[in-house]
Amino acid sequence: MELLRLATAGSVDDGKSTLIGRLLYDSKAIFEDQLESMERVSRQRGDEYTDLALLTDGLRAEREQGITIDVAYRYFATPVRKFIIADTPGHIQYTRNMVTGNSMADLTVVLVDARKGIVEQTRRHAFLASLLKVPHLLVCVNKMDLVDYDQSVFNAIREEFSGFASRLDVADLSFIPISALEGDNVVQRSVNMPWYEGASLLHHLEQVYIASDRNLIDARFPVQWVVRPQATSSRDYRGYAGRVDGGVFRPGDEVIVLPSGLSATVAGIDTFDGPVDEAFPPMSVTMRLNEDIDVSRGDVLCRPHNRPTVGQDLEAMVCWMTQRPLQTGDFLALKHTTRWVRAVVRDVQYRIDVNTLHRDPSAATLGLNDVGRVRFRVTQPLFYDSYRRNRQTGSFILASEDTNVTAGAGMLLGTD
Amino acid sequence: MDRGRPGAGTGRYQLSQLENIEAESIHIIREVAAEFERPVLLFSGGKDSVVMLRLAQKAFWPGRIPFPVMHIDTGQNFPEVLEFRDRCVAEVGATLVVASVQDSIDAGRVAEEPGPNPSRNRLQTRTLLDAITEHRFDAVFGGARRDEEKARAKERVFSFRDEFGQWDPKNQRPELWSLFNGRHRAGEHIRVFPLSDWTELDIWQYVADEGIDLPSIYYSHRRRVFRRDGMLLSVGPHVAPGGDEEVFEATVRYRTVGDMTCTGAVESVAVSVEDIVAEVAATRLTERGATRADDRVSEAAMEDRKRVGYF
Fold it and tell me: Which range, of A24-38, A147-161, B162-176, B231-245, averages the lowest pLDDT?
């Protein structure tokens, strides 16, 4: 069985909670005691119906205020796939949460209210999904029951959204007309919209092809940990533990170790369950090399004729996540793959309006929830790919050196 | 996992869902070992901590697990589970640290709750935090899963604790990709949850696939029980039925393993791991809702306990 990670974003009234509630309920992932607890709280608050948002709004503050303030993770399964939903609030003040939710997603669901059409929030969700290079974008035109299941309403929204999306970097874009409340096209194909010939939402989630989304071309193996058992039985064992972040490694492969540039041959790829013939993303394995060379945490194994960019001057799209603004001259801690380095901000090249995509080159800082293009200089060379080419070796986080909080997320730009 | 080549049964270069979350957990465990000075793995003998221990074993194989294992012993545990704990830790060659709630009571750090059959569930937090301070642990692995409970659904994989051991749910660090931020000052620590993305069913399927041993109380057996607050509690040294609580023998098993005072049994005839997988797949109650009195105190019982430093 495969795993699909999906991200949703939305606000109170666009039917997102109803939709998630229905997916969970219909796949039997809501339990009776959870339902009972939601019913009890809804009754106490005087709601007229059971508020399915209570399932995801787990924190006291969220329940009290009736809003979602953070990313919640939900799990459900069908006989075909298991799903992890990263459910985030949709308001602009939660841009950082949406960025977080989209960072691991295979697919993002953007909800559009059929009565209102494309609004600012729709464009923002789509932009953030494309910024985070989520491979599949699924637009659900919801509340079709309130527009009499009218095909022309759906078509108009699809056309307008497609026009907007052409300005974005979206690999796979699909549209489904649904009614989350009535269940049209959520699990079963709707009898109310015979004009729609595509799959139901759940069927789409089960069938969307994700196998080719990972980078299987550029072999990248950042070393996490050196395995050197102290036991007599395996005294000479020396292995490099890590996760394959790109490409495929096989025993016998010639590899280069960065930063030393020394070449070596893969002697074997070990796991607790025995050696494997090939290792691919996102496998966690331990590599042995034939040559006795110095390799430590933070080093990267790659192939001789396919190396990552090595550099100390970085350009990246950054989402800023903390109150204190990012500005020229700031020193920050930066984590990329398995290494922490220090970074200094050289300049903000522009800030991008997440609603209009307008670029403001006069911006000198990035405030909380701002997105912009930033240049950095780092203390030691990083071995990286563009984020567009590899989401693992192309991403980094920034942390405050004073408070240690995670202050920003970066997506590296490259020359490809 | 006897799986032939990785991804067997799925497409080429595609891991199965269990292989996927296993790889993710191993990645997390290695990051902690590499970036922290004094990690520790919390181990109760419950199924989640047993799976976590297996994942730690896998992460460093053929090396040993490079950190100790700690049990917070309330003194009210099931004897079968304590026996299992010692055997399990010895098998992987790890060091076991036991922090005892009874010691905390004897030292006057905490007071036993009043009333008959007092639960020590709440008291564990003090013992845990004292042990973290005493041993200067800076990363503490816990087996909590996000599907267990609604407050846990919001918690990060790397969850920051301040110098008082407190969790601030409204002020959590954003967590992106699999780039974890474990930075902290002396006296602060990080709780790490490598099983965040696992569900109860995943745990059982993994136990089945891996042939992992669990304490016998997870499997159906005959036991003398009585009904309290809709739960079946076992009659034992720490739990006595009240005058109007009728004792009877039933065929039961445990879905979670906590204190004898607050962990209820469920009626079940599941004697094998395969039976349990089928039972869990069909159940309509969450494991905590079915079996844990500690979560029934209020709507936000778990969040409130977590805020002050609970598991």
Answer: A24-38
Q: What's A303-326 look like in SS3?
A: ECCECCEEEEEEEEEEEECCCCCE
Strand order, beta sheet including A172-177? A72-77, A81-89, A2-10, A107-113, A136-142, A172-177
Average pLDDT over residues A388-397: 96
Task: Give the per-residue pLDDT at A72.
Answer: 84
Angstrom distance (rounded) from CA A164 to CA A29: 35
Instruction: Give 3-state DSSP helix, strand, coil % of chain A, rounded to 5.
Output: 20, 35, 40
CA-closest candidate to residue A343, choices A360, A330, A352: A330
Give the count of Cβ contacts less than 8 A between chain A and B: 202
Confidence class of residue B289 from pLDDT cuts 50, 70 and 90?
A: low
Rounded to whole angstroms, how far apart are CA atoms A115 and B141? 48
ipTM of the complex: 0.92
pLDDT attached to residue B2: 41
Nearest-CA distance A358 → chain B (Å): 25
If we measure between CA atoms, which residue out of B58, B46, B62, B47 comes closest to residue B21? B58
- Which chain B residues contact residue A41 at CB under 8 A? 299
Would you call A162 an interface residue with chain B, using a CB distance cutoff of 8 Å? no
The whole-angstrom separation of Cα B27 and Cα A282 is 9
CA atoms of A246 and A255, how far apart (whole Å): 14
Percent of chain B with pLDDT over 70: 91
Strands laid side by side in the B189-192 sheet: B96-100, B69-73, B39-42, B139-141, B189-192, B158-161
- Interchain proximity B303–A58, CB inside 8 Å: yes
For the entire predicted model, the pTM comes to: 0.92
* 3-class secondary-structure state, position A374: strand
